[in-house]
Batch of 2 targets.
Target 1
Amino acid sequence: MSDQDNILTPDLIVKKMYDNDDFSQWLGIEFLNVAKGSCSIKMTVRTEMTNGFNVAHGGISFSLADSAFAFASNSLGKHAVSIETSISHVKPVFVGDILIAIAEAQNVSNSLAIFNVTVKNQEDKTVALFKGTVFRKNEYWT
Amino acid sequence: MSDQDNILTPDLIVKKMYDNDDFSQWLGIEFLNVAKGSCSIKMTVRTEMTNGFNVAHGGISFSLADSAFAFASNSLGKHAVSIETSISHVKPVFVGDILIAIAEAQNVSNSLAIFNVTVKNQEDKTVALFKGTVFRKNEYWT
Amino acid sequence: MSDQDNILTPDLIVKKMYDNDDFSQWLGIEFLNVAKGSCSIKMTVRTEMTNGFNVAHGGISFSLADSAFAFASNSLGKHAVSIETSISHVKPVFVGDILIAIAEAQNVSNSLAIFNVTVKNQEDKTVALFKGTVFRKNEYWT
Amino acid sequence: MSDQDNILTPDLIVKKMYDNDDFSQWLGIEFLNVAKGSCSIKMTVRTEMTNGFNVAHGGISFSLADSAFAFASNSLGKHAVSIETSISHVKPVFVGDILIAIAEAQNVSNSLAIFNVTVKNQEDKTVALFKGTVFRKNEYWT
């Protein structure tokens, strides 16, 4: 039986990733939804995540989006590594805000895949728009 | 005397920012160099910054680069807010690695400025290439 | 009566832009749909648009997407200028292909707006994914 | 003798590409310099390249930068295809302007490479900043 016949389900891939992911745990990430090629996660912004004046550091919403992107892209079954990501911060994020990141595949080929991640706050307002591209290795999640 | 006559030096602007910046402090950022439109900072990667297997989460080198970008863009004298940033991760980062981020202005106009940030490790190898654009408000660091 | 009371309709703004836009005319752009904050256009790829082997130059799908982005962002009523755009080419484009670009606002604030543009071919396959940010001037289309 | 022993020189690779590249010829591209991993080209902006009011369409400086990026990335010896490119337009370009695009490798690995391209006008002023990533196939220019 080859590796390709043995690929874990999206849920198990993401669980395996998260269990080793100390920084996602530090962020306080919880899972809302995982499916093949998509993932929604949430977290609450704490004081130690701010860059002054109660506003979250740009790295926080990026990190949340990047985690959603990593989970969604690996959930396709092959090990996926980030090539290029971009983020536009469109609204400030404050201490106590609950952020939700929704990652969705836009295009998947054999060796590349592109995702959009939208980050929203508890009022369903978009706070950041993220786009990411992964390289998909010939290595499977088994 | 107007606000423009009262602008702080790059060093004082960055000190004021850093003193309020809890997340940059959590990252353990130290300053190597600050000048008008440029900034070099460093940090050491800790276990809690990894996403498994001792490799740093993509949000860590992004956050370091984003801090260098924020310091360098505000050091020009006006309050600067991030519009769009992108990062390419070109080499894995490990626990114990010492990262240096060097931010340099590429283009500055009245209301916009573009920066490149190169992130290197202790062996002077590039681990990430970051590009960022800020909107420069009509508000001065005084 | 102020300029803001006199803003042209999306259709008239785009018509005014297109009538002066020699390069969009060279591309052979036709309009499928124009509304406030969105725009769909199409064109056919000609031999002189290729970079060899009948494959379209990357600048062609970019230019089409950039035109859709310019029309959609100006259709909001204020003069809009491009700050930053990115494109991922996900499928080759050939001579004779009919490309459709669909631009849609993702986020609009007073001075900035972000758009996604999807470029598809005649088989409804995505060939390129484009993201763009404009600066919205305090100048109206009247 | 394997393909790898037979790789063309950067000059010959770029000549072979340009001879088939109808759109680069339409742009009127001339070569200033070609070396392994870098390339400088120039062109003059014509009326048919504008989007009204004598200002060049954003697709023109993108296309010039994208050509320089394609030549520089393929000059490394392997067939290279664009994964993701971004451009910031920082200064308007006018009819009659002479544009120079300078592409330089920032990071090269076995399967990926990242380039910066700076586009300047005849006054040596930067008009656009471009960043691009290619996938390097296991196919050589022979």
Target 2
Amino acid sequence: MPVYKAPLRDIKFVLHELLDIDTHYKSIPGADELTPDLIDAMIGETAKFIENVIAPLNHPGDEEGCHWSPEGVKTPKGFKEAYAQYCEQGILSMAHHEEHGGQGLPPSMGIVASELMGAANTSFSMYPGLSSGAMAAIEAHGSDEQKQAYLPKMNSGEWSGTMCLTESHCGTDLGLLRTKATPQDDGTFKVDGEKIFISAGDHDLTDNIIHLVLARLPDAPAGTKGISLFIVPKVLINEDGSLGERNGVVCSSIEHKMGINGSATCVLNFEDATGYLIGQPNKGLRAMFTMMNVARLGTGMQGMAMGELSRQGALEYAKDRLQMRALTGPKFPDKPADPIIVHPDVRRMLLTQKAFSEGARALAHHCGMLADITMRKAGTDEAEAAESEMELLTPIAKAFMSDSGSESANLGMQVFGGHGYVREHGMEQIVRDARIMQIYEGANGIQALDLLGRKVLATGGARLKAFTDQIDAFCEAQKGDDMKEYVDALRLHTEEWNGLVQKILERAMTNPDEAGAASYDFLSYSGYVVYAFFFARAAAISQKALADGKDDAAFYRSKLATARFYFRRLLPRTRGLVQTMLSGADDLMSLDAEDFGY
Amino acid sequence: MPVYKAPLRDIKFVLHELLDIDTHYKSIPGADELTPDLIDAMIGETAKFIENVIAPLNHPGDEEGCHWSPEGVKTPKGFKEAYAQYCEQGILSMAHHEEHGGQGLPPSMGIVASELMGAANTSFSMYPGLSSGAMAAIEAHGSDEQKQAYLPKMNSGEWSGTMCLTESHCGTDLGLLRTKATPQDDGTFKVDGEKIFISAGDHDLTDNIIHLVLARLPDAPAGTKGISLFIVPKVLINEDGSLGERNGVVCSSIEHKMGINGSATCVLNFEDATGYLIGQPNKGLRAMFTMMNVARLGTGMQGMAMGELSRQGALEYAKDRLQMRALTGPKFPDKPADPIIVHPDVRRMLLTQKAFSEGARALAHHCGMLADITMRKAGTDEAEAAESEMELLTPIAKAFMSDSGSESANLGMQVFGGHGYVREHGMEQIVRDARIMQIYEGANGIQALDLLGRKVLATGGARLKAFTDQIDAFCEAQKGDDMKEYVDALRLHTEEWNGLVQKILERAMTNPDEAGAASYDFLSYSGYVVYAFFFARAAAISQKALADGKDDAAFYRSKLATARFYFRRLLPRTRGLVQTMLSGADDLMSLDAEDFGY
């Protein structure tokens, strides 16, 4: 059973050394008091709480699962108490507005907590995660009255929130949604419809649940342009702020799933439920999309966090488990066999896990810093550039971090052999839990289309070029021989990457299916190059640290070894992708749908 | 929920057209009466039974699982009746010796049944699968008396069998095993020890269970050369063949696993259990190894079968599920949205599944035919060559078919989106069930070492060369322009493949870790090329069938499209592998074990 230890050393490396978050915070309104020591102290305290209180509930929560009854959903033992402590600890409120009970820290600090939570207990993390998403929606689009009515009690953890989008016939294609909102004389609305896959849709953690619901007004245009957003509390709120009657929202069942069993995935039936419009009529989907970037980054983070937890479990096991001798002769002749970490192929798995964790962590925190700039410096040129980069990186972060997280989770299980397949060892749970990250919050195939279509081709490749310019500038600045291996590989890839875009662009002009046919491989290709950029930077810093005789040389040597491993063993996967993404739409589209079977 | 339909059309294509099993059978002793019509009739009947009786128990079996009590293990509802029917149907006895109640059909016919069973209900298939393995061991190594005592009742399904190898401290490294066998005055042995991960180790399907147990004699040398094989019946057998007292074998618990929940995975405690030596003392592991090839092929087959079941489910869903419009404009303007099979990326997933199923099926049946020759023509040059090829292909079949089967299972689930993650739709069960195939019967990393070390490098590359000579001969025979794409790619790969072996061989001379460091990528590379060889042959046959105006043109067009897809979209993955496998041991071995963590 992996015992989660927050990887503080690497998080600090990423924040302070790789991304220089300390300089960054000096320019972020509200963050200028965040000194390195304060940041480390906060992370340390958060980590301790999460390791000691949240992580131990992970495996029991999977075994017990959530239970439905007509009275509502019961979460696993210990979740309720942990939720209260979590909120009291101020982790939920960290990055929320100060005027309504939040701490006003920048989004990037929330990203740190989300890695730790995702690894310690992904199921549990869904409850504060969804609440945080609902709070962000209210912060961004609510009236002052709405903010005052809901946010303080959501920050404190007395109430929680959800996002109600999906219906049984529409997930990706929200334009098809049917839930109705009928205006009432008093300015409220009656909401009627059925929503499915609502995470944290019902539970026993809080006294009230504030649902944010997408629905259609009677006169709304068809499709995505006729969707509005409503606040629908589970329990209605009296004028004095106290809780009143139950609203017309019923959880009629929960899903039995492959994983994240501690997270209640609910069918919610809205019948004559009282709702309050939030934001503009028919602009509901757009309102949702403003929060999508952070939500998608959070999902990628969950994926990477699963990989990290698996890595920790696999590493301990590989050092303990004795089986066979090293190919080069016994390393521990006094033991009956060598620990399996002596075997090159076991190391290949462990290093793949390590590289995926570290690459993803760097990307995630970089995106967190872009979110800081986007949100805290809105209206500036810097914010515009940051937002553009975030638009590019978000589908990569969501999909590639979850794909590589799942791969890592599977490798960790493989290291355990047959013992990995047995539930009590906790490794297979990680594989099951990680699997949803590739699906929800926009399936990875949708992310790929978003990346290639909307983010790259739609800008004629300009948005990608702005990013590769940063890589090229980095390469330009590297003069030492020690960096040559990295610089050469990066240069090859940036040129190739932009070239691919031009080729696909040309083909897609005459046949839009060409973009769809290239999209997934393009996304994977992009993911490998983005991680490579961060590893090259990490390598440069580590080389310098070692040359300067900095403390903790073992850490820098390990980082360098991981960067080298990444460039030699993982980045070359682009060699296949560059071929397959250019193989054309014809080999996908030529077969009649009827001829796919036998 | 996927409803399994045996893919008879493709199985018949592979057997009759691709592999020409009809000519093959004319030369196999005992198989010369198998006409094409008879083969098809047998497969059709087997398929009908499996579709109607075995497949419906798959999902309920997963939900119910196995239950342990001190009285023994209870299998899911319906398994007991189905086991009796299965044996009555003659599927278990198909490839077993006629003189003891089998039907004497060649091993290849058993391989056909094992695909169908693996897809219809992998958990259920473990019970007859293990029994069949135990029977094969008795057939190969038992005395006449032992054969007569056990085989007829195992063929009839009154009794079943197991293979007891693993102990908690040794899976891969059987040299460490501790179970003891103490000789008694009456020529029997007392067996004492604990075995884990014993599939079908206890259950309620049969009146008796014949355990084949690896154990050490008191004077046995240490390591793998001191292991003997024993028959240990759960219930002792009286002289008249009737059942006597319970033997000293107790199932003390079963594992709770990620999947194959209908299959009981048992801890067996042997205490003063009466055992009978089978085969020579201290030659037990070698005896086991003679059956390993068929068992490993069976595991690969289970992996491919899982992918096939997932493919069937995903294809139906992709044709039904309406979501978004085609990128090239609405294809079904009268419907609210297009079926998702219009999207290139969905087709990429479905075609990957299709290609993996078909490539694996061809490889598996080819191996089945090699097994026919090896077993039925023992002592001939032809058998020696077949055995050598089987040695080469077995680790590829086991590992690559299970790796590609798991990939396929995951793709099928991805096609379902969020619905794939919900248990009731049956797609996530396939992912969970498929995952074990990469682990048991020798984890895939072990297969990779076996392939590269023992099968390829140990013969200086000669065994591989004998196989690539077949590919080259095929290429030589292809004159038409239509085959150029396939022939060019195959030629490139056969030359490269042999070249890789020489490079690795050279390095491994000075550092054995170089072989370990290259092994997994070498195995994957080999898998892609082997499938490619079968697809090229299938393409040649399909081109000819279409040119000749043969019936069922749609099938041949589909086969051609799949072959083209495979060569353009999957085979290029070798481009990354060829780089990574040559990146050297240093990037895996240079880091101290202590520096893998933070």
